[in-house]
Structures are given as C-alpha cells and as structure tokens.
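[09:14] KT: can someone run the structure on this one? pasting the chain below
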Amino acid sequence: MKAFTITKYSKESSLQLLELPVPEIQENEVLVEVHAASVNQLDGKIKSGEFKLILPYKLPLILGHDVAGVVTKVGSKVTKFKVGDEVFARPADFHVGTFAEFIAVNESDLALKPKNISMEEAASIPLVALTVWQAFRQKSNLQKGQKVFIQAGSGGVGTIAIQVAKHLGAMVATTTSAANVDLVKSLGADLVIDYKKEDFESLLKNYDLVLNSQDPATLEKSLRILKSGGKLVSISGPPDPTYAKEMGLSWFMKMAIYFLSYKVRSLAKKLNIDYSFLFMKANGKQLAEITTLIETGIIRPVIDKIFPFDQTNDALAYVESGRAKGKVVIKIK
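[09:31] RB: done, structure tokens below
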C-alpha cells in the first residue's frame, strides 16, 4: 500500500510517499480501506518533534489521525463491525497512520459513518468532535444557560465547538476575522469578535467556560474573563500534572510538566478558576453519540479544501498556515 511517512522529526522536511505492507490486524481490530483522512495541527506538531517527549513514537511513522473508509477484514474477536461497513474513527495514540491506503483500527475506537454525509465529510469529524465532546461533557459539564468563549471559531475545533455548545444550550462568544463572521454566526455564535480589531478581554466578563486553543498570552487573558469558579479547558497547553499522571509519564516528565504549567495554574488558583489541559482520547462510543447529532442535523461538517492523496504535503502545509476555515481533507480512494 502507499503511505505518507516521516523518518525523522523535522519542521522543514516533507512527508515521504512509500510503498509499505498492508497492516496485519489483531483479534480485536478491523482493517479499514481508507477513503478519506483529514489533516490536523497535531500532525504538524508530531512531524516537527514538538510532542516527542510525551508521544514517543518509533520512526518511521505514518501520520494521520482521522479516517473514514470501509471495513475489509475483521479480527476473530470483533463483534461490532463486519466486512463492508462504512466507518470512521480517530485511532488511538500509537495506532495512528491514516495517510495511507489501509489502516488497522481497534473496534473500540470505531463508529459507523453517519449515513447523511460523504466520506470526506466524515473524515473531518472524529478528532475535533471528540475534543469538543470531552471538553464540554467530561471536563466542564457545560450546562444550559452558561456562557462559553470559544477561541478561533472558524477553525476545525471551533466550527464544531460552536455547534455543540449551542446544542447544549449555552450562550457562545467567539473570535474570528471579518471574512468569517457570517460562517460562525451561521453555526450559532451569539457574539462574534473580530480579533484583528477588538480585544476580547475588554468585551467579555463573567463567563463560565473558555475553550482555549491559542498561545499563552491569550490563555492568560482568557482566565481574566471568567467568573470566580469558572473553568478553562486548554487544548493547546500547557499540560498539567493531572495529564502527566493519566499518561503515566516518567518522574522527569511529571516534574517538567509541573514547572511548565506552574505559572498558569498559579494565576488560575489566584482567580479561583479551574484550569485543565485536554489531550483527547479515542472513543468509539462517544463517536457514535456524535453520529446521532450529525444524522439529526445538529452538527454539520465544515470543510475548507479537499486535496488528492498525492498532494498530502500541500494539505499539511495549508493547515500549518493557519488559514483554514473548518477542516482540510485528503481524498485517498
């Protein structure tokens, strides 16, 4: 099979297209023929080596964290899926590799593809939707009537986060550029701030929740718009000691993360804010719940561009440019 891989960590080098064996499946896995995969900022961060201490992958590595395709083989203990099923997933860490013609996926990470969307649309969903689901349902328990600030509302996470927050009954504020105001309003945003002209810190106050996806300066400003007892869930760091414990990291890494996050945790504590870091986990059961929201029209995918498989490097470069509205997808079959 053809697959795009990295053989060393590098920000500058391109992914290499190689001919590799089709993966062998374990008893609890299915083999998926990949029809489409989406590109995430995480792919670029892994490629550059930014995550090599907390995600120590063995190289060479096939990149890609989202997949939509068709089951072509099932393991002996698989009970939920059969050959011919159309599925989608965010494969678990250390089992990624969707920039390829085939991938082996544990059945617990899979869900049936929503019937009312295309393979390309389905591939755009898993990582960002699971991130939002876990931020709003597990980490913060977002409630009807609460106020949430979602940064970068026109991005991959933002476009889904706005829709899920509105479904849960929250009032949504977000930032975007003037060109994307109509898009985020169409998704349900109540208050839209042009980040190029306005300072959200001067416009927002007494919020219940912030979903942080930006830089440390934006994170600190976001803490100050929350009411006492509010929550900030960050998907862009810094990682906190709870995350280090959940990941079973080494003593050295636990200490490094403790000091890395000390400043923001101290500021959050001073303001009586609950700060937590989220690195989403693969979860087929949650993805099935998200499927229901898609099939009932509550969530709709937002895709900026679809690239052919041979232009995977161009797709990654486009995502890393930060210009994408919604998701960028690679059409493989």
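[09:33] KT: thanks! The mean pLDDT is 97.
[09:34] RB: yep, looked fine to me
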